[in-house]
Write a structure and sequence with these properties.
Elements lengths: L2 E2 H9 L5 H4 L3 E3 L10 E3 L4 E2 L2 H10 L1 H20 L5 E6 L12 H5 L4 E4 L7 H6 L8 H8 L4 E7 L2 H4 L11 H4 L16 H23 L9 E4 L26 H6 L4 H24 L4 E4 L19 H21 L5
Parallel strand pairs: 1-4, 5-6, 5-7, 7-8, 8-9
Antiparallel strand pairs: 2-3
Length: about 350
Amino acid sequence: MKITYDEFLKIARDPSVPEEQLLKYCDVVEHSGAFDIQFKIKPDMVQMTEADQEFENALQIGNWASRIRRYWRFKDALRDHPERPMLISEGDSWFQFPILIDDVIDHLSAHFNIYSLDAAGDTAQNMVYGANRARRREYLSALLEYKDQVFGFLFSAAGNDVIGEDPDTGVAVLFDVLRDFNGDITDVEGHIDRVVFDEKLAFLKGAYERVISDIRGVAELQEMPVFVHGYDYVFPFRWEGDTRDPLHAAQDEWLGEPLSDRNIPSVLGRKIISAMLDELYAMLDGLAASDDNVIVVDCRGAMPNLTDWVDEIHGTSDGFAKVASRFKAAIDQALVVQGAMT
């Protein structure tokens, strides 16, 4: 039996309704674009007027539904579990993978009260410098609002810049970063356009420094732990035995296509991308070296098996649970250090 669009929105807003029930009324838009997963309402399940359809087109149901449901779950958690440490998160699709996957924040929310500002498809550029005033430095407004309650800040913002895609063009970042295969299967460095990659890394360093500076400029937050990470070693498509075929993205959406375009074998491609991620971690380690309360959560090797990955750059629910366990260990250790947990 069909329900009205207003009834659907009520269900979507209700944090007690499981995500699986939302999928009863929605389909994933196949290969809808990388980090920003899109859904369309099933016309045989939801009655919609023309005005409803126009509103729905502007709504982006994936990010919107996940974000508002998380907000009400956070408010409920503050009421029902006041003993839990409170965290604020700002990040990309590792922190919010709408509806289809239990992401890192979903798993951590079983242990902490998390105010999630995350959005699939978000970028460091948008989070820190973006033209959208409502989203730019949103983390700072939230931290100021909860400065007397928040224990720590979780930040995930380098995915699009290193292993994702340009949000304006939809083109994989690796197209610009990689050089054509030179015939040497052992040559990692020779296949990285050093000028392009160094520029991207320098931009990220500046963005992270701005975030840390913003936070340390608030007296109450000068010693608040800031947790960052640099992702995990990925498996480009087509890896040996690769059966991944996600609805939300092409099989080679971010890594396989540019590697193939440059004629780089997948085995070498994985080594190249791993080296790039190692440099990202080295940059983050440098930031942590100058601030004892910037904590780098090393996620490398957390998802060591191909079956841990739903696509080229995102974990499955079980895979992300392994990443979340590393975050939890780091958060718990910070709680001990700061005397909030024994």
